[in-house]
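Narrative progress, year one. The postdoctoral researcher (J.K.) led the effort to move from monomer predictions toward full complexes, under supervision of the PI. The following entry was the first complex the group processed end to end, covering 674 residues in total.
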Amino acid sequence: VIDQTLLPGRLELLRLDSPAAVGEAIRSMRVRGAPLIGVTAAYGLALAIAEDPGTRAIERAAQALCATRPTAVNLAWAVSRIGEHVRPLPAAERAAAAWRAAGELAEAEVRACEAIGRVGAALLSERFPVAARPLEILTHCNAGWLATIEWGTALAPIYRLRDEGRAVHVWVSETRPRNQGLLTAWELREHGVPCTLVVDSAAGPLLASGRVDCCLVGADRIAGNGDVANKIGTALKAVAAKDAGVPFYVAAPLSTVDWGLADGRGIPIEERDRGEVTDEFDIAVFNPGFDVTPARLVTALITELGVAPAGDLPKHFMELGVLHPARLARPGAELES
Amino acid sequence: VIDQTLLPGRLELLRLDSPAAVGEAIRSMRVRGAPLIGVTAAYGLALAIAEDPGTRAIERAAQALCATRPTAVNLAWAVSRIGEHVRPLPAAERAAAAWRAAGELAEAEVRACEAIGRVGAALLSERFPVAARPLEILTHCNAGWLATIEWGTALAPIYRLRDEGRAVHVWVSETRPRNQGLLTAWELREHGVPCTLVVDSAAGPLLASGRVDCCLVGADRIAGNGDVANKIGTALKAVAAKDAGVPFYVAAPLSTVDWGLADGRGIPIEERDRGEVTDEFDIAVFNPGFDVTPARLVTALITELGVAPAGDLPKHFMELGVLHPARLARPGAELES
């Protein structure tokens, strides 16, 4: 994996060769981004199964991986898929099968992100016809290929538009306390997309001034009613966008939807270390890693299966024939393939 | 002055003995806070007059001081008051008169802040009767005694409530890129007021969750219609507070009102150095120091002359008999005393 804590200053690869190394990399955010930590955890479980293919050992390893970061549902979803896949097999075959399944999951995420790029680019092209100035997009955190495997979620439509020759400029929100906005600025610059870094608070005047055509962010977990958990700072942008009449889009693969969850109140919000905010040790700190944007502030979801209204997601995807009602009961329910 | 760039790590006094030293201290934010830079600039002009009491030299020095930071109107207001005060006097008497006038201005700011504390504490006591939990206030940047001379603006009612024995807890917004929230946390802790530091983005979930009773911030310039320029990040909090039904109060002395300015569009917004945001030199940066909160998002202004609706301010204060219509034409118009 790329050690993302060293970017944008240094691009360094890190070899994760044990479940413990995978857990550490996810917890410390060397590996980050909801889809990427899902796939990385899947490989982590495969490494654990290679060490001990017993059913109880697999369960313990899965629990340890899921505890590293609680908010992104992709992690629990990916780990549970690998577990379910190997459970019926003889112990001797489990490690190889888990490794193959993790690889398939990675491929599926790449295909989903590519599709999100196509769907999102088509939506933005239709909604915002070519004008004298570039299309101005505000994003938050990093939802590019660093956070996925290829393409990204929120950045996939932007890369696609760039490839189609459309002029795009991106306002990149710093994303305190971990400054993942720098990762986004690095990614965009490497790919020739002009961008400008701003502090998170600058979204206020940018949105109010008419300088931003739309917001486009990723997601860590989406409830059935369309409430979106994403990196802390997303919710303030959504409410300011609504106030300014600027569309607010969320791009995410359907592996991010927690089908059985009625609304965002049920999403566990990770509280991270105080040292991320300040090293002054006699000041009390509250450091939630995520916030929940209510569905009423989300203009639409951009998924690999098309643009979805940010309303009743299970109903929408059942009507599309891709979600079976029986699967709604458990978190991370699988789509019909 | 206290060199605020060293706080909260180190409390160090700095002697400013020339107009150039005063200008540098204001520009580099060693001295910061709208009321405090007004008074400091007044003393800076007195130092300049001691060097050269000629009318043109005074004008040049006044212009140089006003150019250090363009957004806070208190600076231009204080400098122009000193200039007007000494102009009719013989050159030999100007330096001493300017020094006395700067001292009177400082005293007037202290009295104004003390009155803001009384007015604000009474408002909050009435609006939020004592409950089982402490009164929960969210503030932004630093509008305490560090930013004024004594008491502060937004923090004055909090200190007053504490003195009255009311339990108060303050959520302190970090205030990127300069992290003045740390100054507020330091001030509050020194005075025994419990507080918790959060990143600016955390205002979203805090306001939406019902954990905050009201927002209370200062101001750098207020237009006649009640639009409020304050530290970048204020506007996002105001729109989120409105969405959550949480009152949003602005505390400021009337020296902060730019009576002749119709609305917030006329307020010059300082753009500061990119290095405040990142030292990665190949990333483009936009770093506005302030934003404008529209009057419709402000529940009320807390001033030394009482609580004012954030609507037509000139009309309100003319009806109170403290503002003469003829004075509206020029910025920083003086109130009848």
